[in-house]
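Hey, can you fold this one?
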Amino acid sequence: MIMKKIFLCCTVFFIAAACMLTGCAGKKGDEIRLDNSEPLALAPDVSWAVVLDPYAGYRKVTSWNSDVTSYCRKGDILQVLGETAVKASGNWYEFKDGWLPESAVTVYNNRFKAEAAASKLKD
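Sure. Predicted structure:
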C-alpha cells in the first residue's frame, strides 16, 4: 500500500514537472517581429490615410473646383502631410501629390492600422 502511494506521488510529480517544463519552452514561431521598413510607421506625430473611393483625384488646392494633379485608388495607403478645415466643404488632407477631402479617406494614427484597414478593403 505504501509503495502504491509512493509510486502515485512520483508519477504525479513527474507529470507536473514535465508540464511545467514544456509550457516554459520557447517556441520559435512565437517571436514578435517588428516591421521597420517604414521608419515613420509608429511615429506619434505622423498620420496615415487609406483611400476609400474606387478612384480619387488629388486636388491642387482644397476645393472641388481645383485642378486634379494626380489620382489614387481604393486601398492606397498615404502619409498625411497636413490637414485643414474648409468652411464650405469640410476637412481636407494634404498628401505628396495634392489634397483629398475627408470623404475620400479614413485616417489612422499609425501605418500598421492603416495597412490592416486597407487589406480588408481589398478582400
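The CA atoms of residues 17 and 23 lie 10 Å apart. Let me know if you want another pass with a different chain boundary.
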